[in-house]
Amino acid sequence: MKVTFPHMGNQYVATKVLLDELEVENIVPPECSKDTLDIGTQHSPESICLPLKVNIGNYIESIKQGADTIILTGSCGPCRFGYYSILQKEIMKAMGHNINFILLDPPQGDYKSFFARIFKLTNTKNPYKIIKALAKATRVLYLVDEMEEVSCYKRPRQKKIGEVDIYYDGFHKKVRKIHGYREVSKLIKETINNIKSIPEDPNREVIKIGVIGEIYTIIEPFVNLNIHKKLGNMGVEVSTSLKISRWLTEHLYLQPLKLTGEKKIRNMAKPYLKTMIGGHGRETIGHAIDYAKRGFDGVIQIYPFTCMPEIVAQSILPTIEKDFDIPYLCLIVDELTGEAGYTTRLEAFVDLLIRRREMGISDKLLSRN
Amino acid sequence: MINCYLGIDVGSVSTNVVLMNDDKEIIGKVYTSTQGKPIDAIKRGLKEIKAQVRDEIKVKGVGTTGSGRHLASMIVGGDVVKNEITAHGIAALNFVKGVKTIFEIGGQDSKIILLRDGIISDFAMNTVCAAGTGSFLDRQASRIGIEIQEFGELALKSKNTVRIAGRCAVFAESDMIHKQQLGHNQEDIIKGLCDALVRNFLNNLGKGKEILGPIVFQGGVAANAGIKKSFEEALKQEIYVPPHHNVMGAIGCCLLAQEKAEKKNTTQFKGFDIVNSGYQVKGFECEDCSNLCEVVEIMRDGQLMARWGDKCCKWSDKVKDDIEKLA
């Protein structure tokens, strides 16, 4: 059995560790590229959202390298992602690939079938081994998310632009060649330390932007045209509202116990959107308000074309823009690879935020006199 | 000797070059079509503007904008490279006192910019739809068989507007053909198209935004009197079209270049002689990874000036290093 899985930001590092620790042979799909997208669009329904197309591309590229089993997480959220596994099975069948699907839906209380699927994947019934591997993978997930945060903090402050990405890109090249928790976590920690030690320019005025929206598009760099790097090199500290580590804790550990870490965010969204509308629509609203309250300069919403929950959020966000006085920009991504228009919007938005801040500062000085 | 600032806006349809003096007066402007050859257009623009100005001039700063801004900056030696939105906003602020809203419709994109207290407070650009931009109008004009310059005047003659679906360029076109076949006269159809375009603009870009006067309408399409009238009817207030409406982006660049020159007293400008240099563009496909980036190389008189198009910046950074080593 050779197992593969779809890409989603840095998640592949943790999944790789999980499978390594369980001694399951695995294939990390090649980094998403134009090829991935071409394969995906060719075999997917035209009107489906972008993540599915990229997923299909990932599978095919892995199958070319010998993969025969796909693991996929489901989401309990009533958005199209919930049907991904079913649709993807059909697509793979139609293409003539005889592929095994193992669906790792969060247990939602049904731990028995959850573990049955895990046993199928791991070929072991030793719960101690499984739990240990799971714990290690979770730890790696938190570490890569920390690395992401550190690089987002450093990029706008680095003295020589591009230095963070030497280490950051280097990490992604190296991690594919090593195996297991010990080596991977060592590499991540090294990378974090390297990035932390990059000299800073103390005179830099740093703008803070919160990125909100659909989770896949805000964390997969190929799909959002490297927004973290682009903004970072323009002098912006980027914070991402949703992270896989948080998502995992929420769905795997907290929700079955009827707990939630998102309560604060949901309460904030309440005056605008009372109920769950699928996907992360409610969280998008809540996080926008949260960022405004935390004194961020602006928020950017990103979502794949035709994503219903985010369209609902998009129509509410202008009201939040007014109520909380925080500028908002919406970017819709699809199969575009031309970056000119995208960069123009980002640049203009950053300009707007810088000017606003300058005006704010001079206003304060004036009122003091 | 007059001190002046050069602004260049390389757009998809037109390339505009403007010279402005210290008192923010426009002393020369050129509006030339890009026709997919930005380098030739820039050279042509520089040549023509040099011919327009009789006096001895000294260029103290250069700014570039538009989708070809990086190319222009590299060729001419730009001090400021700015996106179109900021450039347009700055230009309007200097030419219309207290402007609060800007409508800008160009060749391939349209934008709305809101200004409050003299700064840009919000903007939107057309996202997934090209209906209502200059090239759409161009196409429809040639379909009906009239010159785009006559388009606006004809719309003003209409007495009984025909309603045309404006949500999508494809719907608009087929709706228009049906109305033509029914025998509606040309003026009414053209006015209907103007109304549809304005409706599309206000619904798509203006949605949820507070559109306050004074409103400035600029960009190439602002020359179209029919669209201006449709905007006025829809918003029930006057719309100003500034005298240099088609080169506002370039004017914004002049202003930005002036601002920059006040802070830093040197310019990168390479002089008007560059129009005599030969520029070649070469390209190759990088095969080092599966992205297969198309890398573009710009050569001036046989010497490599710049490279771009690569996602990983491997090639573009290499040139910077080479130039630094030479310098």
UniProtKB/TrEMBL annotation, chain A:
<protein>
    <submittedName>
        <fullName>CoA protein activase</fullName>
    </submittedName>
</protein>
<dbReference type="InterPro" id="IPR051805">
    <property type="entry name" value="Dehydratase_Activator_Redct"/>
</dbReference>
From TrEMBL, chain B:
<dbReference type="GO" id="GO:0046872">
    <property type="term" value="F:metal ion binding"/>
</dbReference>
<dbReference type="GO" id="GO:0051536">
    <property type="term" value="F:iron-sulfur cluster binding"/>
</dbReference>
<feature type="domain" description="ATPase BadF/BadG/BcrA/BcrD type">
    <location>
        <begin position="6"/>
        <end position="257"/>
    </location>
</feature>
<keyword id="KW-0479">Metal-binding</keyword>
<keyword id="KW-0411">Iron-sulfur</keyword>
<keyword id="KW-0408">Iron</keyword>
<dbReference type="InterPro" id="IPR051805">
    <property type="entry name" value="Dehydratase_Activator_Redct"/>
</dbReference>
<dbReference type="InterPro" id="IPR008275">
    <property type="entry name" value="CoA_E_activase_dom"/>
</dbReference>
<protein>
    <submittedName>
        <fullName>2-hydroxyglutaryl-CoA dehydratase</fullName>
    </submittedName>
</protein>
<dbReference type="InterPro" id="IPR002731">
    <property type="entry name" value="ATPase_BadF"/>
</dbReference>
<dbReference type="InterPro" id="IPR043129">
    <property type="entry name" value="ATPase_NBD"/>
</dbReference>
<dbReference type="Pfam" id="PF01869">
    <property type="entry name" value="BcrAD_BadFG"/>
</dbReference>
